[in-house]
């Protein structure tokens, strides 16, 4: 096993991966091997899996949904909550039998969980049939690790503690041809006291603007219409760069790229929402009217214990400013219930805030203790029963609000980017509004990939039904 501290990737390291990709492509020319990737967690992970798939595709592998057909199986893991980790270990255990039946299969496990020392120990001791283990900081090295593993009987383990460089030019196999994720910043410096992300994803590192712009220009040339800029905290973009540029500046540059029609971004931290960003959202025609703004709690005491660096009052001020400047903006959020020390009164503050903001939707979570985070050691951990009851109450409240908000859309005509046929009803198409709501409507499949106007006729908490008005 190799363990490395903070590291700079050299040109030779990158060149080596390219050489291995070419060697593997020659080796696989007449063999048509297949790969399967299971991804857990956030959009960052989904996008990392697109990079793994890109490298595998260039090495001559094709994708399969069927585990039984795969020659390489990868698990890209998430550790943000304990529940995810338990599920992943369960899935990995199920593969033991497959590996016994087909010993030549390569099983790899990577992503955030691998940055936790105890997890790697557990894999070494309890899951010896895993072939490759690597982390978030050395994803670019996957071709080398795969080649090594094909020539070895032991588990190849390579985890880095951090990576100060950004490796550009990793091939990406995107899931579809209309909407694309684009990384703009990696890592997080915020250290919210409940969160493990800064420990497994490292410090903030912004990509150079010209790398981002070039990637988006080629996406536009390939026919992509919508891009979502990705980062744990996109609003810190540029803080670490030698040139003077911030997130809003970047948005102005991206808005000028011909062919891209919609721009989204996630995730934003309320402490970094500047007036400049709000005005950019108001003024830039391609920037969609949707902001995901995690609040986490409505109680000032809990926000402080969480180290969120804003108050309930400041958060509400931002929401008002957003609504004053960007009519019809959809606002979504993340909320944690049962953070250590959360009393009934604190939880009531959260419910009151939800009633006041009236989110379009909310991702709600039960606080999960994460090893090594400050909140793990905090006093007054909340009883599991209470956490579950609070979650249920919060979900019920938000559902009512989501339904009411969608109901207000009835009779309105909205622009929809048509993404495909509806999974439930093959006669219907499905797409999203600029506010990121899903709309189903009857129309011919030739409209897939186009922008159309749809009148909303019926709504639920998560989806809306419409009728085509104009193409
Ligand atoms: N427990 C519960 N939820 C968490 N999140 C992050 N860490 C934890 C944790 N330890 C939630 C936050 C964050 C979202 C991605 O996951 O709400 O915004
Ligand atoms: Fe975690 Fe807070 Fe960073 Fe988000 S901003 S990734 S919640 S530490």
Automatic annotation (TrEMBL):
NCBIfam families: miaB-methiolase, MiaB/RimO family radical SAM methylthiotransferase. Residues 174-404 form the Radical SAM core domain. This is tRNA-2-methylthio-N(6)-dimethylallyladenosine synthase. HAMAP family: tRNA_metthiotr_MiaB (MF_01864). Binds 2 [4Fe-4S] clusters. One cluster is coordinated with 3 cysteines and an exchangeable S-adenosyl-L-methionine. Pfam families: Radical_SAM (PF04055), TRAM (PF01938), UPF0004 (PF00919). Residues 33-151 form the MTTase N-terminal domain. Its cofactor is [4Fe-4S] cluster. Its EC number is 2.8.4.3. Its main location: cytoplasm. GO terms for molecular function: 4 iron, 4 sulfur cluster binding; metal ion binding; tRNA-2-methylthio-N(6)-dimethylallyladenosine(37) synthase activity. Keywords: 4Fe-4S, Cytoplasm, Iron, Iron-sulfur, Metal-binding, S-adenosyl-L-methionine, Transferase, tRNA processing. It is an enzyme of class 2 (transferase). Catalyzes the methylthiolation of N6-(dimethylallyl)adenosine (i(6)A), leading to the formation of 2-methylthio-N6-(dimethylallyl)adenosine (ms(2)i(6)A) at position 37 in tRNAs that read codons beginning with uridine. The keyword DNA-binding does not apply.
